[in-house]
Amino acid sequence: MGLFSFFTKEKKQDLDKGLEKTRENVFSRLSKAIIGKSKVDDEVLDELEEILITSDVGVQTTIKIIERIENRVSRDKYLGTNELNRILKEEIGQLLQENNSGDGDDFEIPAGKHPYVIMVVGVNGVGKTTTIGKLAYNFKQAGKSVVLGAADTFRAAAVDQIKIWGERTGVPVISQGMGADPASVAFDTLKSAVSQQKDVVIIDTAGRLHNKVNLMKELTKIKSVMQKVVPDAPHEILLVLDGSTGQNAIEQARQFTAATEVNALALTKLDGTAKGGVVIGISDQFKIPVKYIGIGEKMTDLQVFNRTAFVESLFSKD
Q1: What would the pLDDT profile of 95-143 be if each residue is shown by its tens digit?
Q2: What is the dihedral of CA 121, 123, 124, 130, to 10 degrees?
């Protein structure tokens, strides 16, 4: 497979544009750090460490990357600063690979999972509803039939927003209105999906974090009720995080991974921030694959995360 064999030229341009602020933040500062230096020494590594941390890669992940580069410097004896970008790119790509981030090529679903059930979690304001709408659009564009479940019944606006996205994308929405039992909504959605032989089910859930115990109980109940219809549902518990919030996104990941078995991440709003390094840090710290990234407002600006394309774009000098 070629480097961008699944990427259209437009997708690559969108990714480059979406990561522009992060790329400029890393590269402009890294370039200044190595001016006048011929080799990677302790001073260069100290500068690199600060750059990575302030790009919200996170302290633990930054230390891991620095240690790997130090090992390479020690092994290779002499490492020129002109090689630093290449080595940094390789180490970041390796970290993402170790956490199974960026293995996907397109909006596909695993064989034998029909319907494929995605339960979406995340606090209000991170772009959860928008991500669900864009997921529905992109799965539909990929030839999949989709149904949405409006199980965030805590806020009336959440149900209305999902319905608007359903109308916009031409995807049916199962809802019972504000105050309804979320598990009941999920049950009805799966029953409808099975009877109509839908390919993908996407269930919205309430974005409350103020009481982790109640959140855990609610999500556990939704899962157990769905399993009465589809025994191995949900196949994917997708945590949506706002990439522009940096370390706050990491704290949200900590809370939600404690409340439920998150097995996929979506990082939104990367186009509006210089903190795109949070993608690397969250994947590494929680050992959960980053599956989708949001890099703009267009429907197609929710992309399946591919680590090769991401790292190439992050380190592109163009």
Answers
A1: 999 988 777 768 989 888 999 999 999 998 899 999 999 999 999 999 9
A2: -40
- Note whether 118 and 238 are within 8 A (CB): yes
Per-residue confidence band for 77, with pLDDT thresholds at 50, 70 and 90:
low
Length of the chain equals 318
Which residues, other chains included, contact 22 with Cβ-Cβ below 8 Å and sequence gap of 6+?
A: 55, 270, 273, 274, 275, 276, 277, 314
* 293: number of Cβ within 10 Å: 26
- 8 Å CB contact between 131 and 240: yes
Name the residue with tokens 């939704």: 222
For residue 61, what pLDDT band results from cuts at 50, 70 and 90? very high
Distances (CA, A) of 160 to 118, 152, 170: 20, 10, 15
Whose CA is closest to 84, among 131, 119, 32, 127? 32
Q: Is the pLDDT of residue 291 over 90?
A: yes
pLDDT of residue 210: 55
All domains of the chain in start order, with CATH: 9-98 (1.20.120.140), 116-306 (3.40.50.300)
Q: Which run of H or E residues covers position 241?
A: strand 236-242
7-13 contacts, C-beta under 8 A, 24 or more apart: 7/306, 7/309, 10/300, 11/300, 11/303, 12/309, 12/313
In angstroms, the CA 265 to CA 282 distance is 9
Answer whether 140's CB lies under 8 Å from 170's CB.
yes
Do the Cβ atoms of 118 and 144 come closer than 8 Å? Answer: no
Which of 202, 210, 143, 207 has the alpha carbon at shortest distance from 175? 202
Residue tagged 């290449």 (tokens)? 86
